[in-house]
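Researcher: Let's do a round of design. I'm pasting the structure tokens now; please hold your answer until I've finished.
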């Protein structure tokens, strides 16, 4: 079995935000974040500074003494990330038309605006067809306004034009079909599904700390693929392989949550590495996640 720890690393920002996403409405205790960080060789000080930076950026906020929840700057995007669990419910039969986003007339409100815009479009499966014109198959959501709302929450400017299009000329239709590598996507579904299933079959042999660490790494890799999956219809990809992959991710997520619940229970009586306070460290300049 290939070990995820041999290929992946975790930074403090991702660890904290992923733990908060997994916790749902339950606040994340700073002590638990610090002790979880030890699984990935992240120092106490690094976690403290990251908590402070995320707080300064509005991405997290104090829920109670020594505990945090997602802040207003992260709530919408966090909800979109968590929506991977219901991806398949958004799909519908493709009739050959497309959804188009025109960004050519958009200004540059701040330096981070283009980055947020590109992230939103990538997360929704849009690809650049021509300058300022992004496109994807029209097989998600029955209501176009739902597509707009998903894009807005992920960072697209609200004055971007979002509309449906059909009847592309043969040259552009051919160009659109080349925007995604459907064969590579189908292969990735298959390969990662097998990796998840092999890990689950051997997880019972791992010590608890190793199981927690590896389930976080491999589960994060699988969920990242779903969050950024373009959700293409047939014949772009093999939808059966995607369905099997999604089912495997659900099973893996359930197992990973159970493992982390056991891990946190095992450290419940561990003294905190630093005194619990409402502010873990002196605030520093917000980092790139605020973009």
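Researcher: That's everything. Go ahead.
Model: Designed sequence:
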């Amino acid at each position: 079995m290939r070990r995820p720890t041999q290929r992946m690393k975790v930074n403090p920002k991702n660890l904290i935000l992923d733990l908060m996403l997994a916790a749902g409405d339950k606040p994340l205790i700073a002590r638990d974040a610090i002790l979880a960080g030890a699984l990935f060789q992240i120092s106490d000080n690094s976690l403290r500074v990251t908590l402070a930076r995320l707080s300064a950026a509005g991405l997290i906020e104090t829920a109670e003494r020594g505990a945090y929840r997602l802040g207003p700057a992260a709530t919408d995007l966090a909800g979109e990330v968590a929506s991977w669990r219901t991806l398949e419910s958004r799909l519908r039969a493709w009739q050959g038309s497309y959804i188009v986003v025109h960004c050519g007339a958009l200004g540059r409100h701040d330096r981070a605006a283009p980055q947020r815009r590109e992230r939103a479009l990538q997360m929704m499966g849009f690809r650049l067809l021509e300058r300022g014109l992004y496109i994807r198959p029209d097989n998600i959501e029955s209501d176009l306004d739902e597509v707009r709302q998903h894009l807005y929450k992920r960072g697209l400017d609200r004055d971007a034009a979002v509309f449906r299009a059909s009847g592309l000329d043969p040259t552009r239709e051919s160009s659109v079909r080349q925007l995604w590598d459907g064969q590579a996507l189908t292969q990735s579904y298959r390969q990662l599904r097998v990796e998840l299933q092999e890990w689950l079959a051997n997880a019972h042999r791992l010590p608890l700390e190793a199981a927690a660490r590896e389930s976080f790494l491999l589960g994060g890799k699988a969920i990242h693929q779903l969050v950024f999956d373009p959700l293409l219809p047939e014949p772009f990809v093999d939808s059966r392989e995607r369905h099997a992959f999604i089912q495997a991710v659900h099973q893996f997520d359930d197992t990973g949550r159970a493992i982390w619940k056991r891990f946190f229970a095992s450290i419940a009586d561990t003294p905190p590495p630093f005194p619990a306070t409402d502010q873990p460290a002196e605030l520093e300049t917000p980092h790139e996640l605020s973009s």
